[in-house]
Design a protein that fits this description.
The complex is a heterodimer. Chain A is mainly alpha-helical. Chain A is about 75% helix and about 0% strand. The longest helix of chain A has about 35 residues. The chains are: A mainly alpha, B alpha/beta. The interface between A and B is medium-sized, with 25 and 26 residues.
């Protein structure tokens, strides 16, 4: 019953989100093609809500998948340097190839980082099906720092205008016009959800331990590689359109686990759905908290996410 | 049934073994027993092991899980909320005549079915592992120290299961418990610092001379029991 109410409230939230904002929409004009209300609703608000939902869903579910693959509650595509990779490459594109759409740079950065991580992981775990998570996490953190250093270097060689674009990108943004960006992200999110369900049996076994999964006939390395590839592909698409939006991948899977108290293989859909809802809500706050302008979405998610993250760490230590 | 032909690594040296039936692997801490088990089962990739005449990579996925299974000495579960029931259900590899409930009552863990695996005590998780290998029921089951965390009553229960042929087909048991090994009467492989120093029958192993050579004066055979000489 409680769940039904939560689902209902979430749906209501998604439904009312596009109607509320700085610009007050007049319902009677919503279908009048030439009105400003029509444009704001169909070209700005609605695509924005969809984009927020799909991005939130992708980031949350990919967090859950990464935590399963690497057997570490703190790993997300973000803590492994994927976000900084995509930021760096976007910055490179902004400075050196301004004529290209920098969406491509973000995607390339995310993708290259994951491929690099996979090969490093393979080197660390030679001849064994076991994953040494700690060294992997450390490599990811080292990579993030390396990328940040490169980014600082870029700041010093770029001009003021380029600097502003880069900073703006790093804060994350859901500002889009029309549905052009929504379709690829929506497609990516459905691919991710589909693949996770295709590999449900394997993921379930990997939730025990890689050893156990191996003994039950799961080709751990192959499944890892496929899932990593799919996740990085989807996260890459997502980040390239919105910029790095932190903390969702970490926070949402943990909240859902704590609320549902169920094994992660039963939580694919809740994590996907409520991840989407979480970002829609964050976006809603970011648009409506300050009247004159929009808060960067990364600020809102981190504002909610960071304290929760600390709470989680404290709670873990009490266990 | 299972053979290792000249396996070399930093821990194990010149291992050549042929295992024909139920076997017990003995050895001191850090002698490489668990590593040897991981080599046998293929968790450590190698070309040296042959099972039923086939190397690991020559076995199909199904053949592999039907022929060999390994139970670690510690239960390792990443997911916080996976229950004992769920874990047991995952342990079956096909249709089995034994059911989760029966299995749980056989090991005396029926009351734990709803609990999360991570909250179990070390003894309880060892019983769960035992239940899981019966559910899996591979041709060869390697048990890594199946009684190390158990009290006497539960050790006896596990002993009876391992000693009967009703639940598991062929068994390779790694243990420290000499009396446990002695009473089972399986063939013995003794490992010392990564080398096989004894392979033979149970009777041949448990004689005063061998006890003296392998364990110094810390072990004694007294009236059909092997006891620590404290």
């Amino acid at each position: 019953m409680k769940k039904v109410i939560i689902y209902f409230l979430s749906l209501v939230m998604i439904l009312i989100a596009p109607f509320i904002g700085d610009f007050v929409i007049d319902f009677s004009k919503i279908n009048a093609m030439d009105s400003q209300d029509y444009m704001v609703f169909w070209d700005l608000r609605l695509p924005r809500v969809f984009l927020a939902f799909f991005c939130g869903a992708i980031l949350s579910l990919s967090g859950l998948v990464f935590q399963t693959i690497f057997k570490n509650a703190l790993i997300t595509p973000y803590t492994l340097g994927v976000a900084s990779g995509s930021t760096l490459f976007t910055a490179l594109f902004i400075i050196f190839f301004p004529s290209y759409i920098y969406v491509f740079g973000g995607f390339l950065g995310a993708f290259l980082t994951i491929v690099l991580l996979f090969f490093i992981s393979n080197r660390i775990n030679q001849n064994s099906i076991l994953v040494q998570t700690n060294s992997f996490l450390l490599v990811g953190i080292a990579l993030s720092f390396f990328y940040s250093a490169c980014l600082m270097l870029l700041f010093t060689v770029s001009n003021f205008e380029e600097n502003y674009s880069i900073v703006r990108y790093t804060l994350g943004s859901l500002d889009i016009v029309g549905f052009d960006y929504v379709f690829p992200v929506g497609f990516a999110s459905s691919v991710l959800l589909f693949m996770v369900y295709v590999y449900k049996k394997e993921i379930t076994l990997m939730l025990t331990s890689n050893e156990n999964a191996f003994l039950k006939g799961v080709e751990v390395k192959k499944v890892n590689f496929i899932l990593l590839l799919v996740v990085s592909f989807c996260v890459g698409i997502c980040i390239s359109f919105t910029g790095p939006i932190g903390f969702i991948g970490l926070v949402v899977p943990h909240i859902i686990k704590i609320v549902y108290k169920q094994s992660a293989y039963k939580l694919f859909w809740p994590v996907f759905f409520f991840g989407g809802v979480f970002l829609v809500v964050c976006d809603f706050i970011s648009r409506n908290l300050i009247q004159s302008s929009t808060l960067p979405i990364g600020v809102v998610t981190a504002f909610i996410g960071a304290p929760f993250f600390i709470y989680l760490i404290v709670r873990r230590s009490y266990k | 049934m299972l053979a290792i032909n000249n396996y070399q690594s930093s821990i194990l040296h010149d291992i050549s073994l042929e295992i024909k039936g139920n076997t017990i692997i003995l050895g001191s801490n850090g002698s490489g027993k668990s590593t040897l088990a991981k080599v046998m089962v293929g968790i450590i990739e190698n070309e040296a092991t042959t099972i039923l005449g086939k190397k690991h990579h020559e076995l199909s996925r199904i053949q592999k899980i039907e022929t060999i299974n390994y139970i670690p000495s510690k239960l390792e579960i990443f997911d916080e909320y996976m229950s004992v029931q769920e874990f047991l259900e995952l342990s079956f590899i096909g249709i089995s005549k034994i059911k989760v409930q029966e299995l749980a009552s056989l090991l005396g863990i029926s009351t734990l079915l709803e609990h999360n695996c991570q909250t179990l005590s070390s003894g309880e998780s060892q019983l769960l592992l035992m239940a899981s290998c019966i559910a899996h029921n591979a041709l060869i089951t390697i048990l890594d120290e199946p009684t190390s965390n158990l009290d006497q009553i539960k050790t006896k229960r596990v002993f009876d299961i391992v000693n009967s042929n009703e639940y598991l087909q062929h068994k390779i048991i790694i243990t420290h418990d000499l009396n446990f090994a002695y009473k089972l009467g399986f063939d013995i492989v003794f490992i010392q610092s990564g080398k096989v120093v004894f392979q033979g029958s149970n009777e041949a192993f448990f004689c005063a001379k061998n006890m003296e050579t392998f364990f110094g004066n810390s072990v004694k055979i007294v009236e059909n029991f092997v006891v620590s000489n404290l």
